[in-house]
Design a protein that fits this description.
InterPro entries: RNase_H-like (IPR053151), RNaseH_domain (IPR002156). Helix content is 48%, strand content 5%. By secondary structure, it is mainly alpha-helical. Strands 1-2 form a two-stranded parallel ribbon.
């Protein structure tokens, strides 16, 4: 898992500390499944598409949203990530 939020990654790594936040507990439950999980902090520039999608999520109604094509807010970012 990659995040540009060092505090979030540290929270997930500190399993000995009890958290009342259900999202943290849910992520810990997923991390306990038999698969390899690594947590690392990345710089914000490496996370532009995820950041744009997170900002878009605040503007959408709750529920599942399926995109056939990338939303317009990330199209140029996705194109910039494609190899030449």
């Amino acid at each position: 898992m990659e995040s540009d939020c060092g505090r979030a990654i540290q929270t997930l790594k500190d399993r000995g500390i009890r958290h009342d936040v259900s999202l943290v507990q849910h992520i810990w439950d997923l991390m306990n499944i038999q698969w390899e999980v690594s947590l690392r902090v990345i710089n914000r520039e490496s996370n532009k598409v995820a950041d744009a999608l997170a900002n878009l999520a605040w503007k959408l109604s709750s529920g599942f949203h399926d995109f056939v094509d990338p939303p317009s807010c990330v199209s140029s970012l996705v194109m910039a990530d494609l190899p030449d």
